[in-house]
Structure formats: structure tokens, C-alpha cells
Amino acid sequence: MGKLNGRSGDSIYVLTGGLEWDISVPTRSLALFGPVDGDVEVFVWLQHWEEGMRLFGFPTETERSLFLDLTKVEGIGPKQALKILSGISPQDLKLALDAGDLAALKRIPGVGPKLGQKMVLALKGKLVDFDGPDSDSLPSSPWSDLVSALADMGFDRRAAEKAVRSKAASLTPNSGKEGEAELFRQALLELSSGGA
């Protein structure tokens, strides 16, 4: 856990204990880390080599697990795995691999026929199932409780996530429980009016 200090390209900057960490993330996941200056939870993996170190971060533990599975495929290093996850959602990637859909895999930037075939051979049927219908769900922190509460009230979970995400951008950083209550109220109003 830390504070999201900013975003740039395929990186987020997270402040923890007085240190700011530059963490490389899939570009399609950038928005899932919440608003700048808000609290953020990032699931990281550290690459260490002779010349230095690099942190890779993900909004969910499952996506980090998929990243690590990709790095086990011959010809895919951490940077390539990150690029793949920037070009396709975890759910769509799993579906393509399980179906042996080389056409879908070749649409991912940097993946050709040979690499796509290697991915299918190495990972088909071996990936964990992903929660939810798509990857654009909110990370487990900081809004999962609000989304779950709205879903328990009978609202569609995807619509609840969309409403919470759209309202969270205007939430005052570090506003605590009062801010959460206001975010819940605003999301509930949007859902009730059919806005999400």
C-alpha cells in the first residue's frame, strides 16, 4: 500500500515510507490504480540483474500471476510479457490460449505466429480463471467493498464498478470514511438514475 504520486507512459509512481517507486505496469491497467494522490495497492514483481533492478506492478494478484506465467514461455522476458498484457485483457488472453486462437494472439503487438504457437503450447489449459466478465474491473483496493455493497443491493457488478470509478476521480484524496460514504452515495445515485 502507498500513495499514487503520478503516472507516465507505462509507469506509475508510488510513495511508501518516504520513498517514491517507479513501477512499470501494463498500459491498459493504468486507470485501475485509482486517482493520483489516493491510496493504492500494487502487486509487484522485482526483476534483478547485474546492471540494476526494475519493478513491475499489477492491479490484481491474478494479473501478476499471469505475467509470471508468460515469462516462463521461451522467448518472452518481463518487458515482452508486460507488452502483451498492455495489448490484451487477461480474460481475452486466457480465452485465446485455451482455444488455440492464433489469429487473436497475432493481433497482440509483438506476437508473431511462432511466439503465439509457443504461448499456446506452454499455457493452454494451465491459466487460472479470472474473476468477473472482463479485466477492466477495479482492483481489490480501494473500492472493492463499495462495489460489492452495490452489487449486493441488486445492481449489475460491472455497472457498479463503472459508476464507482467515474465518481472516484472527483473524490478528495485522503478523505477517509466520509469520502467513501460520499462516493457510495454518488455511485448509488448514478446507478439509480440509470446513468451507469
- Specify the oligomeric state: single chain
Give the C-alpha Rg: 18 Å
Strand count, sense and closure of the main sheet?
6 strands, mixed
Q: How many helical elements?
A: 8
String of helices and strands: EEEEEEHHHHHHHH
Shape: flat
Runs in which pLDDT lies below 50 for 5 or more consecutive residues are: 132-141
* Overall helicity: 40-55%
CATH topology of the largest domain: DNA polymerase, domain 1
Q: What is the H level of CATH, i.e. the homologous superfamily of the largest domain?
A: 5' to 3' exonuclease, C-terminal subdomain
Distance between the termini: 29 Å
How many domains comprise the coordinates?
A: 3
Compute the average pLDDT: 83
Q: Class of the largest domain, according to the CATH hierarchy?
A: Mainly Alpha
Class computed from helices, strands and strand pairing: alpha+beta
Based on the structure given, which CATH architecture of the largest domain is correct?
A: Orthogonal Bundle
Strand content: 15-25%
Please report the total strand number as a whole number.
Answer: 6
Strand order of the largest sheet: 4-1-2-3-6-5
